[in-house]
Every structure is written in C-alpha cells, then in structure tokens.
Amino acid sequence: MFEITIPFDQSHLFFPRIITWLLGGLFVLVLMKYARPIMSKYRSGGMTELLDLEEFHKFKFFGTIVLVALYFIMMDVVGSWFPNMGFGFLFVSMPFIFLMGMMYVHEITKATVTKIVIVSLVSPLLAWFVLARLFDITLP
Predict the structure, then answer these.
(1) How far apart are CA 74 and CA 82, in angstroms?
(2) Which of 75, 112, 120, 122 would be 98's cystine partner, CB 3.0–4.6 Å?
(3) With a threshold of 0.70, does the pTM exceed it?
(4) What angle do CA 20, 22, 26 make, to 5 degrees?
C-alpha cells in the first residue's frame, strides 16, 4: 500500500509529468484570475495595447531563454562526465540559480548577493540529496 513501483526506463519521466501538470494547472488559474479583467479593460479602450512593451525587459526575457537552454544542454554534457550520479543536475543547477537570481534581483548589494549564493548552493544540493540519494531517482 505504501510502495510505488516505477519501471527504471520510465523513472526519468515521473517528476517532469508532475511538474507539467502543476504548471498547466497554475496557467489555468492565472487565466481564470486575470484574463477577463484584462480583456474587458482592453475592449473598453482603457488599454491601447494588450502588452505594455515599455515595461518589457528584453535582457531578462532573452537572458532567461538563453540560460534555460544552456541549463538543459550543459546538464546533459556534465551528466555524461559522471554517468548515473546526478552530478549534471547538481553542478549545473548551482550556477544556473545564481545567474537567474542575479538577473532578476532589483538591487545588487552584498546582502542580496550573499543570499543568492546561499540559495544557489543549498537548494540544488538539498534537491539532489533528497531525489538522488533518498528516493533513488535518476538525475541527469
């Protein structure tokens, strides 16, 4: 009753499926909350453009796309150096989280950089330990 058996060849799909459903659910909740007010304001002429491009941060947008692409590419590369140990996830997640944090922080101070460094080191290590060591879930 308290045991879940996942075939090894499907184990790498277990968490991505959960995350996909969670993200899909969150997307639906955001649409339910914000779509109607935005569309009614747009139709009534309260908004001249649906997207306010003056507030659009090109560096953050394109930087995020580049970092996410590099994250997945490098996770595979580093993971191939240490097969079946999850070090690709561990060693690539740390700089990824650091760079994302630095890109999105509003004011760079010694305190914020220290917090970003701590989070970028501790959170991947904790996730790696729980997933790879406690639950024996294969990580790249």
Answers:
(1) 13
(2) 120
(3) no
(4) 115
Helix ranges, the chain (H): 14-43, 58-81, 87-104, 110-128
| Contacts of residue 93, Cβ cutoff 8 Å, sequence gap at least 6 | 71, 75, 120, 123, 124, 127, 128
Q: What span, in angstroms and rounded, lies between the C-alpha atoms of 135 and 127?
A: 11
Query: Tokens 């790249």 belong to which residue?
Result: 140
Q: What is the DSSP letter of 129?
A: I
Longest pairwise C-alpha distance within the chain: 58
Spatial separation of the C-alpha atoms in residues 14 and 129, rounded to whole Å: 17
How many Cβ atoms from other residues are within 10 Å of residue 7's Cβ?
A: 7
Q: Which amino acid type is present at position 28? A: V
Task: Tell me phi and psi for residue 81, to 5 degrees.
Answer: -75, -30
Cβ-based neighbours of 125, under 8 Å, separated by 6 or more: 90, 94
What pLDDT, in 10s, does the model give residues 16-70? 888 999 999 999 999 898 888 777 777 777 666 656 666 678 888 899 999 999 9
